[in-house]
Amino acid sequence: MEAMEDDSLDVKDDHNHNYCASGSGKARTYLSSRLSDVTTVPQPVPSGGEAGSRRGKQWSGSSSSTGGSKFMDSDSGSESSEVSETDCAALPAAVEGKFTLDSTSKFLLNAMAVEDYRKNHWPNLEKAIDRLLIQNPTDHISVSYAQIYSYIYKCVCQQHSELLYNDLMSKITTHLQHVSTRLQASSPENFIENFNVALNQYTASLQCIVPVFMYLNKFYIESKLNRDLRDDLMKLFADHVAEKHVNTLMPLLIEAYSMPFKVQPSTMASVVNGLYSLRPDWAQLAPALFSGFIPQINPPTVESLLSDYAARDQKLQMELSMNGFPRGDQSRKRASEDS
Q1: Are 21 and 29 in contact (CB under 8 A)?
Q2: C-alpha span between 171 and 236 (Å, rounded)
Q3: Which of 292, 259, 273, 131 is nearest to 196 (CA)?
Q4: Contacts of 297 (CB under 8 A, 6+ apart)
Q5: More confident residue, 108 or 269
Q6: Is residue 285 exposed (0-12), middle (13-18) or buried (19+ Cβ within 10 Å)?
Q7: Helix, strand, coil distribution of the chain in percent, nearest 5
Q8: More confident: 143 or 311
Q9: What per-residue string of b and e applies to 102-119 under the rule 16 or more CB within 10 Å gives b?
């Protein structure tokens, strides 16, 4: 009886009917017996025995490997082993289903974010851009720049930078196409003035548009496209407005330059400087015209051509005199101190 009591103390039953040995030394003995029993073929048990009628069987290993300890495998323990094997077999399918669910979730979240951008963010930004594009340099339009910047910040943070950039470029391209159509309907007498108004109005709009899109410019256009927003927007004006009308505009500018004050000097200077900033190579179409407003257009002065320069200056003075610009009464010139 005492031996049986000692043996009963070696094995304890938890609430799941899993038996374990008590004590640190006995626990190690129990684990070693389980590992050895897994690889040991069980001995047949005589029929009719109580152990043979129950699924909870007593596995007996060699005395040297078990150290005399006993291991009872209950029904719950056997079932848990079977479930574990089934779970392991089903693991790839479960993992595959999990990844599929995650991918679907991400797709749905992106779709919802794009839908929110289309319904809420971009319509508000589009209205603000419209108001900024149609303003005159002297007009004051009440626009909440903080709200516009907030929309742009959210769009960039939600990974809509490329979408926002493309929408902005498309919006301004459409606007410039309308500007080009209106210029095409202008009369030659007003063409230079109308072109100057369109150019000044557009550059004034960019002074407001570029700062509010600063976050997009910094974290997408400069970092990923290696460009600048203002340069891209000015290129749109050059491509869709100036380039389409430069062949009409240049002869009018040359004619106006040959007839002083036919067009206001400030307008002439604004248009010529504007064309040069858009495309510097356009200066080669009329070097004399551009050199009158922009320094260092002509090649450097050569000493051997000084006589040609003097003759050109005399010709210009004669043309000015013939067009009603006399040199004045030279007799009223103040005498020098030596006389």
Answers
A1: yes
A2: 11
A3: 273
A4: 283, 287, 290, 291
A5: 269
A6: middle
A7: 70, 5, 25
A8: 311
A9: eeeeeeeeeeebeeebee
**Helix and strand numbers, DSSP H then E, in the chain:** 16, 4
DSSP 160-178: -HHHHHHHHHHHHHHHHHH
Which token pair is 136?
């005159």
Amino acid residing at 181: T
Q: Enter the pTM of the model.
A: 0.60
**If you count them, how many residues does the chain have?**
339
The string of pLDDT tens digits covering residues 98-149 is 444 455 555 555 665 788 899 988 999 999 999 889 866 556 666 788 889 8
- Reply yes or no on whether the pLDDT at 10 is more than 60: no
d(CA 290, CA 282): 9
Reduced to 3 states (helix: H, G, I; strand: E, B; else coil), residue 186 is coil
Q: Is the pLDDT of residue 200 over 90?
A: yes
CA-CA-CA-CA torsion sign (306, 310, 313, 319): negative
- pLDDT 10s digits, 29-82: 544 454 444 444 444 444 444 444 444 444 444 444 444 444 444 343 434 334
Three-state SS for 256-321 is HHHCCCCCCHHHHHHHHHHHHHHCHHHHHHCHHHHHCCCCCCCCCCCHHHHHHHHHHHHHHHHHHH
Residues 234-249 have a mean pLDDT of: 96
What single DSSP character describes residue 330?
G
User: Is 256 within 8 Å of 195 (Cβ atoms)?
Assistant: no
Q: Which residue has the tokens 């858009």?
A: 278
Residue 301 pLDDT: 78
